Amino acid sequence: AATMTSQTTDILDQVWTFVMATRAELFLFCAAVAAYMLLFGNASPKTKNKGLNKAKRIKVMDDDEGLKDDLGDSVKTNQSLTVEEAKQISQSFASAFESD
Is this prediction's pTM over 0.85? Predict the structure, then answer.
């Protein structure tokens, strides 16, 4: 029984020596984990917003129709834009930011 107690205290002494030798590293690790949890702990919201599935639409000025929905019927029918439609949208968007 005495040898069992001696072995237990030797192991505990070695563990304590290891903890004391690496206390700076352990402290920095704990500080890094705490900072991570503080900064990124609630990165994903708990409730999902149902409005996220709707595509955002950009309104641009069109000479013929006034305000026009860029994505038009393609969003409503879940169809892809054609190359020509994409070029037209890109040009109208770029022209909106050009200075005269």
Answer: no
